[in-house]
Amino acid sequence: MDLEAAPPSQALARFRDYLRLLAGLQIGPRLRVKIDPSDLVQQALLKAHQARAQFRGQSSAEMAAWLRQILAHTLADLVRDFGRDRRDINRERSLQATLDESSARLEAWLVASGMAPADEAHRNEQLLELAEALTALPEPQRQAVLLRYYEGRPLEEIGERLQRSRAGVASLLRRGLDRLRKQLKAGE
Questions:
Q1: Distance (Å) of CA 163 to CA 157, 168, 169
Q2: For residue range 16-38, what is the model confidence (pLDDT) as tens digits?
Q3: Nearest to 142 by CA among 175, 95, 164
Q4: Which domains does the chain carry?
Q5: Which helix (H) or strand (E) holds 149?
Q6: How far is it, in rounded angstroms, from Cα 65 to Cα 63?
Q7: Using CA atoms, how far apart are residues 45 and 39, in angstroms rounded to an integer?
Q8: pTM
Q9: Which helix (DSSP H) or strand (DSSP E) does residue 148 occupy?
Q10: Residue 38 gets which letter from DSSP?
Q11: In whole angstroms, how far apart are CA 97 and each of 75, 100, 160?
């Protein structure tokens, strides 16, 4: 994606699903009742739009890293607002590291799935497409796929978390993966 040619709002909007996926992976069940990943991403994108002149990168990878940092700061601010009397810079750094790790795990998943890219720009585009396709899955399928293939959880644990039988989890995974394959092939 040519960052210079795209209008700022369009360049930032391209990362919405990717950021929503990362935010959803970082917000624990305790905070999920107070913080919606979409709201968090909206706030982060607003901050990014306001600070667009400060972005010095040229590539999609640099844009993604810059947006992850803004997302981490936004999440740290919200966590602080929901229970901390003072800002804990170690927590904020921890969130940034966790978001970077989540992004790296998504990239590794993409490479391991047989969709190894020829170059970094292509990989970044595939990562954004994967995030978009995951976001389009029905919630139970998305949770099952992420728990199994992103977090590496066993079927029994996924069943407990989703309150489904082992066969129910296997069915969610099969349907979710089928949908992902179709969506990713349609985007080629």
A1: 9, 9, 9
A2: 888 888 888 777 666 777 778 88
A3: 175
A4: 1-118 (no CATH), 137-188 (1.10.10)
A5: none
A6: 5
A7: 10
A8: 0.56
A9: none
A10: H
A11: 13, 5, 28
